[in-house]
Amino acid sequence: MKKVLSLVIALVLALGCTAALAELTFTTGGTSGTYYAFGNVLAQYITNNSDVAVTAVAGNGSAANIDLLDIGDAQLGFVQNDVASYAYNGIRSFDKPVDTFTAIAALYDETVQLVTCNPDIKSVADLKGKNVSVGSQGSGVYFNALDFLAAYDMTIDDINPQYQSFGDSSEALKDGKIDAAFIVAGAPTPAVVDLATTKGCYLISLDDASVEKLQGISPAYSKTVIPAGTYEGIDEDVTTVGVKATIIANEDVTDDEAYAIVSTIFENVDAITEAHAKGAELNLEYASSCGLPYHPGAAKYFAEKGIEVQVAE
Fold first, then answer.
1. What gap in Å lies between CA 289 and CA 55, rounded to an integer?
2. What are the start-end ranges of the E strands in the chain?
3. What percent of the chain has pLDDT over 70?
4. Would you list the domain boundaries of the chain?
């Protein structure tokens, strides 16, 4: 009887410990993108070095991730800060404001990369009538594609849009099934690395006037240069625009959990960088500005570092 009682007590204690460990789902992006790779590194590091267990899962991108947090199927998500701002304010394709999420931190620049294997495509204007991947359904890439077309006085009706993940876009470019693809992710992006090394590709550069037009469309855009040599065979700098890859959280994430997440990331930048190169871009000042209100738990950490952020009410 004593042995049975001991086993019961041990089981209750074990269950109690398990319940004390928060388990949060972190929705990222397609498996050939930076969201997924870096998201898994962050999730594993947070889980191993804090009292918060985070599981990274593949996702369909910014808009889809916002939907998942809104309905409670995930608690954390990677998003482009431009798309998150559209959702929060209920503009563009969002019929009404989605205010069930807050920012944890902005982590790194996502560059809008227009990729092709056709040397005759030298400008966004050359996409007219072409088969062009504009990202997966529910991704932020679609918004960026619309903006790029608008900067050249075009609309989605001027191309034959294909809704493909980064990996599928790379394969379709290899097979000649599409003419170009918009890929929005931290550079170098695995899907583009694969394409550049196996077939060869080109990145379309923007002129200053187009950059200014894009910044007029969305203040989230910043001028970005992809250095020569980032991808095999691309030996010149490529001028484009970027947005901020940002972690958001829904209302299920407590203040203590949000604090643990942001502090674990920014107190261990060197260790995270050893696991993924994007860790080298982690910076507190950058992290504290994404155009969204911040989770109170994240804001507490920033305040301890002397940085004030807008806090969600």
1. 25
2. 22-27, 52-57, 76-80, 101-116, 131-133, 160-162, 180-185, 202-203, 222-226, 238-250
3. 93
4. 2-106+246-304, 111-243
Q: In this structure, which topology does domain 111-243 adopt according to CATH? A: D-Maltodextrin-Binding Protein; domain 2 (3.40.190)
187, 230 in Cβ contact below 8 A? yes
Taking the C-alpha atoms of residue 298 and residue 279, their distance in angstroms, rounded to an integer, is: 18
Other CB atoms within 10 Å distance of the CB of residue 154 = 16
Could you read off the pLDDT of 135-163 as tens digits, one per residue? 988 788 999 999 999 999 999 999 999 99
| Contacts with 239 (C-beta within 8 Å, 6 or more apart), sequence order | 205, 206, 207, 211, 223, 224, 225
pLDDT at 264 over 80: yes
Cis amide bond preceding 188, omega within 30: yes
Take residue 302 and report the two structure tokens written for it. 């920033």
Which CATH class for the 2-106+246-304 domain? alpha beta
d(CA 116, CA 127): 10
Query: Phi and psi of 104, rounded to 5°?
Result: -95, -50
> What pLDDT score was predicted for residue 90?
96
Closest CA to 146 of 156, 136, 135, 159: 156
Are domains 2-106+246-304 and 111-243 of this chain identical in fold? yes
**Rounded CA separation 181/131 (Å):** 9
What DSSP assignment string belongs to 101-137?
EEEEEEEEEEEEEEEES-TT--SGGGGTTSEEE--ST
Q: What tokens does 166 get? A: 């980064």
Q: For the whole prediction, is pTM greater than 0.90? A: no
| DSSP SS3 for 98 | coil
